[in-house]
Amino acid sequence: MTEELLGLVVVDKPKGLTSHDVVAVIRRALGVRRVGHAGTLDPPATGVLLVGVGRATRLLRFLEATSKRYDGTLSLGATTNTLDATGTVTATFDMTSVTEAQVRAAARSLTGDLEQVPPMVSAIHHEGRRLHELAREGIEVPRKPRRVHVERFDVAPLGDGSWSFGVECSPGTYVRSLVDDLGGALGGGAHLTSLRRTGVGRFSLDDAHDLEAIRDGSLSPLEMLLSPRSMVEHLGVVTVDRAAAGALARGGTVHVDAGVQHPGDVAVCNEAGALVAVAVLDAQGAVRPEVVVASGAPRDED
Fold this sequence. Notes:
Blueprint: E1 7-13, H1 19-30, E2 35-38, E3 46-53, H2 60-63, E4 68-76, E5 78-80, E6 89-92, H3 100-109, E7 112-116, E8 125-126, E9 129-130, H4 131-136, E10 146-159, E11 162-169, H5 175-185, E12 190-200, E13 203-204, E14 209-210, H6 211-215, H7 221-224, E15 236-239, H8 242-249, E16 254-255, E17 264-269, E18 275-281, E19 286-292
Parallel strand pairs: 1-14, 3-12, 15-17
Antiparallel strand pairs: 1-3, 2-3, 4-11, 4-12, 5-6, 7-10, 8-9, 10-11, 12-13, 16-19, 17-18, 18-19
């Protein structure tokens, strides 16, 4: 019997495709029905997209909680209805007198903990519909601000009002909104002109596979799939014996010596080092599985 394919594929998403388009390519290439992604990239954006395969799709939510890194370009002097270059210009500003020092200072002011209003062109749901669907119909609805964290927002001039930038931020941060806020902080307007995600958590472009190589079969599943454990390496690890691994795999709660582990989500591995589950560890050493990904006990050798 063929073993179920499961794990993570890191893709360098090309421009012009949706994140769901990438999922469809992986699904066909691997012949696996259950495929999903973490952290949507809009069609104009490129870069790191994390795609879960098989039961490992259930681990994607732990990756969505990790930091993101981006490189991109922006243009000062105009705002658009989509906050990027794909939209219609809504206002123009003479910002020729803005200095490099002012732009850098404005970018620094947009670091740390921020309250950010999601743009109408986001995938957030409102009364059963996504905001970007409403935006295409010319409908705007109130959105609640969200707390985000921007660790780094570096800018460099390219000339003629164009700037390159690098951002490191928390999940849920909208870079196009950050660029729009930059223009407003300078007394004018700005919009995003290109965006490339260079990293998600521990994964970077160095780990990413070309989508065309996946599509045309140049890569085997073994070459493209990373283990489920790689998806939760940012979590603490608890190793359990065969009996406990089997109990967890059946949904049971086990007790371990918590040691120096802090209560919270942990990656539970069997004695062979394979991920059995992601579980909640409490202060008393009780381990309760949240997501089970393997049978738990390593197989006996023939």
